[in-house]
Fold each of these.
Amino acid sequence: MADGDARALVRRMVEHSERLPASLRSDILARGPEAVVPLVEVLLDEAGHAPIHAAELLTQLKAPEAIAPMVRRLMRTEPGEVLYDTLLYALEEFGPAVVPSALEALAQARTADERFGLLSALSHCGVKDERIYVALLAQLQEDSVAAAMNLSTYGDARAIEPLTRALAAHEVDEEAEDLFANQTIIELQHAIEQLGGTLDAAQRDKAARARGSRHRLSALFQNVLDTLPPPPAQRLPRPGRNEPCWCGSGVKYKKCHLGEDPR
């Protein structure tokens, strides 16, 4: 099949919205390397659902030349968008091959949002690199929740000490009327324990109080809900990977039910 035919086939994705026909997906994957360049073009230049499909197909094709374009598109995409999550999943699938492009982009990143996705991808890549570790420690000053999750995933026990200092610096907001109040303390506790650290009595008490304020509000809301008629059955939207899990555990979705829920 000529390159022009592969490009025309890929361009047909733009005609479709959320669901890509299985036959079209199979036909594109069957083109193998011929489909990579046109898929990258769609990934970088199109809006809507087409870039999402392109990212998924490039991942299935295991095309390493797609890594740098994926990183560039990630930098242009807002956290919380479906494309953003799709790109993070894709980059994680490429593993260690992501490191050069992600580190190069990280050196040029100017905002917390730009660094957020890159550091998530780097923490999941399976590579121990001092540049990654130093960048994750810097994120601890900028976004403690994201840094706690990333350091836990990265898996370097040296992070226990800075995570413990961060835990000591955060106070419990016992008056917060928010089901996800004190998220920072909960994520820091989780990261410390995941890395093999232990909390002393005062730290355990702080973590318990952080969860207690949330549980009280959750119980209050549940009492109100119990008085209401049941709503019609509907499918709830899947949370973003870095949003609190739908189950109310207090842990981010990717650390909780992500692996159990259907994609």
Amino acid sequence: MNSNIFGFANYLESEKELSTNTIECYIRDLKQFTNYLEDNNLADILNVSKTLILTYLMHLQKQGKSISTVSRNIASLRSFYQYMLNEGVISKDPTINLQSPKQEKKVPNILTPNEIEILLDQPDINTSKGIRDKSMLELLYAAGIRVSELISLKVSDVNLDLGYICCSKSNSNERVVPIGKIAVEILTIYINDHRDKFLKDNNEESLFLNYHGKKLTRQGFWKIIKSYTKKANIDKTITPHTLRHSFAVHLLQNGADLRSVQEMLGHSDISTTQIYTLVTKNRIKEVYKKAHPRA
């Protein structure tokens, strides 16, 4: 490994305290850039121009590299040359004002209301497991919460009388989200009649428990939704986040304002929420093409 790259790797580990995976990505990007320079008999890595770096980035794009990969390479090079500049190894940073390519906004994968009904009807509500699983699925769709928020809920976070739940990443960041009557009904049944079937320790506060009486894990819930997806025979890739996406889009399609949806989702930036408007706009285009005589 080039001694400068080796020194940069030590800096990332000791000073920046980055994860091993992140450091490996940075170093791999730098090695690939070095190989590109050597294979094409170009300048040394410490003597490159901004134009040469742009040429390399175009080379990556011609190879079919994704926008995210190209952006990560820019971040790796920028971090490396900043380090070299601060160390006094180079006098000018060739990545100054180098812009990352704009990420293409991907339209979220969602379920139709009918597909939601099919999926949520899969758990067998004649069993305690089925009641628990249906409660979780109904809550994901009713509140649009993340799976991490779902499994972190405590019994005290649920207000069945007023119909809302409290989600919080920390004590200083609490979010109150309303839930509909169907979710309230199934949660009432689960909490009153079935949660005790899983409970092993009366001090356990988690709302959703596994067979060991412990808080359900993210992996455990992934297995649950995967099994019901297969059972529902819906020809789409369904993840816990699919229900969150569907929640947001269905609200917007039925007249909810963007700010309210942003607040319910817990997005700090409304631009994150705006991605869901792409789905509603695509739906409008479809309706127009089908209905307008000159479409």
Amino acid sequence: MEVPCVRVPREEGEATRRELADADLIDDEYEISVAEGSLYVPITDPDAVSDGLEVVARPVEERETQTTPADILGAEPSYERLGRAALLDEDDDERAREIADAVLESDLPLETVLNKASKVKGETRIRDWDILAGDDTEVVHREYGCEFALDLASVYFSPRLATERHRVTKQVSDGERALDMFAGVGPFVIPFAKRGAECVGVDVNEDAISYLRENARRNGVADRVTAICDDIRAVADEYANWADRLVMNLPHSADEFLESAVTLAGDDCVIHYYDIQHEDDPFGPGERAIRDAAEPEYEVTVETRRTVRSYAPHELNVCLDVRLER
């Protein structure tokens, strides 16, 4: 079957392979091939490849030699990959240990296995983890050409939202002023800055802000990122009428911060407002809350109503892209 591949001259192949591996972009399910003096490296995400590399569609062989956890267990286990870590959500300790052993015995490039030991809790939305393999809960995650260091025991991070973050990032223009009101380790801020935006990230979690600063340095955008450890409501007046774009990814309680969002918004500002609502009316409560906060000072236009994912039975995690024009 045809899959996206990076094509490079054979003499540049090893350097390119290392670059793609460092960005976690190589598709391990297919073989790297050589033809007519070129190396073809199968990749997972063409959009995340740097502009200097050529991406082509090409028939490649599936890799038959790779042993997966499913091969060892006889059934496909459920886990998420984050960097070189496998994240489990198993109530049965024995089952969790079986999966951890299978992950380590497999050919997957995973070194750490963590099992969720609590629900997300507290203002900083962190959880406890059982370490089944590896030394600690710190990982380095690569996403759409960006690199994020983080400690899962001290910050909140969801790899499931990568596609949504990339959707929003593609809307950002060079020279914009963007502010993430609940920035975490920077999964919105860092790619925004890489597109040329001047960015501010605010979070109450001191550890998250430390990682945000580190990640800005890792990705070469420290000069375009300001990281602030505080409640956004306490600093909104400092950035009044400043933002061209606001991210409000605190879906259980973003409505409590809409007064601050209106303070931050410039004359023409797009808000990415995340919410969790019942499937019968997933967008209505958020839209009404935004209009109540912003009108009549702003003209409010809902540009996108998007279901991000299912959150719980009959509940949806949604996003409203809303333009405010003074």
